[in-house]
């Protein structure tokens, strides 16, 4: 049913999208140090990017590049050649490996020295290797700030520099650098990954800052714990160690949320102060699969306040990867995440597509997937659309990656180059999508009302098939009187209007009832658009 609804919804999207085209995004490639051995290769790949139609490159250097003279020469060569070839530059992630040493070894500073421990699930199991201990990790915040200051001072005044981001601010839920949520087939949910000693310290500091003392903690959560440093990390909304476990679990999510965005604010301040530039944004980059993780998360993960992140960021970025491991190759999740990021366009913020490509599981060329990835963000009017897979890396997982433009031997794969050029040719600004519904979520209600929290997460599933638009506190976006607005909040006695009541009746994720609920909401919204009852 969901896939049939998706087809209908995409047709509806076309009908609701303005027909007039405007400036197209600037196309480009990722220049990743894991693909490069030396300065000659670094300079050669920049020329390839320009020759293949790039107007921008997103450079992924190693952490602490200043400690490796070869890496620093390579980075300066890339920057210099980009300027001579009239390419714009973005610095992103800052997590590549150093070039090979005399013994052919390639050290990764960030993952070898700082983010070197796996995350932990609530039952104590280690996360998969990809997800790491990040929140509160000793030295991680200091590393972010040090790198931000270095790039701001050394490169911040480049006239062709258009953006900067690093660390957890690139795909906070779907990368080694953030990795807050991992799918657990035991629970069929995306679960928190930060049940670590570091997160426990953050939790206890959060309790002191927000509640004060252990007496207040016990009153708030219905517990009788003798000291704050003995308060456990809540495992879920049914954790029997708490009299009010939903409030406790939601507050733990808030702890992670605040650690993350406080770090963003500090790094952004350093970036603008040290560079002297207000016109180059410190980008907050989302994965295209963010919506799926929240839709299938526990109700309390709705306390990750993504609309407020978007509203308070300089600019937002987006990674667009379709994947053959999904029945629909991940299209529904991408559509929903694009609709979440439409808030940024409403607020006049720049949007950057910073990574794109198709994996199944190797990197492939697929004309239909490339067309989807080029078309999906058109309603956001992104400033850039950057293809991730420019060249083979030194540690490839697959023997062949036909979707990477350049092999390790430096030879161009003509099919990949042609496919990417066709994607570049499709790029456009399609005009904003007109929403069927505007929504806002009262975060305080998440702590006590499970149905409200379920509804807040279910919106991310609904957005894959209906044009939902989130709003943020203090938003100045003009309100369209013809578009219904719903504020999800706990109201004694329940909501008075049918649409809000329907939204608050969202079932658990992964159930047939959830699919039926999505269908019922789409039908009601379509009736409202055509003049029926809202």
Structural features, described:
- It is built from 16 helices and 13 strands.
- Mean pLDDT is 93; it is low at 1-21.
- By secondary structure, it is of the alpha/beta class.
- The chain is globular, with a radius of gyration of 23 Å.
- 39% of the residues lie in helices and 13% in strands.
- The protein folds into three domains: 21-110 and 314-325 and 355-431; 115-160 and 167-309, TIM Barrel (Alpha-Beta Barrel); 437-529, no CATH class.
- The longest helix has 31 residues, at 245-275.
- The chain has an eight-stranded parallel β-sheet with strand order 4-3-2-1-10-9-8-7, covered by helices on one side. A three-stranded parallel β-sheet has the order 12-11-13.
In short:
The chain is α/β, with parallel strands linked by helices and 534 residues long. It has helices spanning 2-16, 39-51, 69-84, 109-114, 140-155, 197-210, 214-221, 245-275, 290-295, 306-312, 331-346, 367-375, 414-426, 450-462, 498-503, 512-529; strands spanning 26-32, 56-60, 88-91, 161-164, 181-184, 189-192, 283-287, 315-323, 351-359, 384-387, 437-441, 468-470, 485-488. The protein has 3 domains: 21-110 and 314-325 and 355-431; 115-160 and 167-309, TIM Barrel; 437-529, no CATH class.
């Amino acid at each position: 049913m969901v896939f049939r609804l998706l087809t209908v919804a995409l047709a509806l999207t076309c009908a609701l999208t303005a027909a007039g085209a405007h400036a197209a995004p600037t196309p480009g490639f990722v220049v990743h140090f894991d693909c490069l051995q030396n300065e000659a290769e670094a300079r050669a790949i920049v020329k390839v990017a320009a020759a293949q139609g790039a107007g921008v490159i997103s450079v992924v250097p190693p952490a602490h590049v200043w400690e490796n003279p070869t890496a620093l020469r390579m980075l300066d060569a890339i920057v210099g050649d980009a300027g001579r070839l009239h390419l714009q530059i973005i610095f992103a992630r800052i997590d590549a490996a150093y070039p090979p040493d005399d013994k052919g070894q390639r050290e990764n500073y960030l993952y070898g020295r700082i983010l070197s421990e796996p995350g932990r699930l609530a039952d104590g199991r280690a996360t998969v290797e990809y997800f790491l201990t990040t929140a509160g990790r000793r030295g991680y915040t200091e590393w972010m700030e040090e790198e931000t200051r270095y790039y701001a001072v050394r490169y911040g005044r480049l006239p062709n520099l258009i953006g900067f981001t690093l660390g957890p601010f690139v795909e906070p839920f779907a990368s080694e650098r953030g990795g807050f949520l991992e799918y657990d087939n035991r629970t069929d949910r995306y679960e928190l990954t930060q049940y670590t000693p570091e997160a426990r310290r953050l939790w206890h500091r959060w309790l002191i800052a927000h509640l004060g003392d252990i007496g207040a903690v016990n009153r708030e959560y219905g517990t009788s714990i003798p000291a704050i440093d003995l308060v456990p990390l809540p495992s879920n909304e049914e954790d029997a160690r708490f009299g009010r476990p939903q409030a406790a679990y939601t507050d733990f999510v808030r702890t992670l949320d605040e650690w993350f965005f406080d770090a963003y604010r500090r790094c952004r301040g350093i970036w603008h102060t040290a560079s002297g530039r207000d016109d180059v944004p410190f980008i907050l980059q989302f994965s295209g699969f963010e919506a799926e993780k929240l839709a299938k998360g526990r109700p309390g993960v709705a306390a990750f306040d993504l609309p407020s992140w978007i509203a308070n960021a300089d600019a937002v970025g987006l990674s667009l990867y379709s994947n053959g491991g999904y029945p629909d190759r991940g299209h529904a999740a991408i559509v929903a995440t694009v609709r979440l990021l439409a808030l940024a366009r409403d607020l006049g913020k720049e949007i950057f597509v910073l990574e794109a490509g198709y994996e199944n599981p190797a990197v492939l060329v697929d004309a239909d997937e490339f067309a989807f990835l080029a078309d999906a963000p058109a309603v956001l009017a992104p400033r850039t659309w950057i293809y991730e897979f420019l060249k083979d890396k030194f540690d490839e997982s697959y023997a062949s990656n036909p979707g990477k433009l350049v092999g390790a031997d430096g030879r161009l794969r003509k099919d990949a180059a042609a496919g990417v050029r066709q994607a570049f040719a499709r790029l456009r600004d399609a005009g904003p999508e007109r929403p069927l519904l505007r929504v806002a979520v009262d975060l305080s209600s998440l702590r006590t009302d499970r149905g409200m929290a379920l509804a807040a997460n279910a919106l991310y599933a609904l957005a894959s098939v209906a044009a939902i638009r989130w709003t943020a506190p203090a938003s100045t976006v003009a309100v369209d009187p013809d578009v219904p607005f719903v504020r999800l909040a706990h109201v004694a006695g329940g909501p008075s209007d049918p649409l809000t009541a329907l939204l608050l009746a969202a079932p658990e994720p992964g159930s047939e009832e959830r699919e039926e609920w999505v269908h019922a909401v789409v039908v009601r919204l379509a009736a409202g658009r055509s003049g029926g009852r809202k």
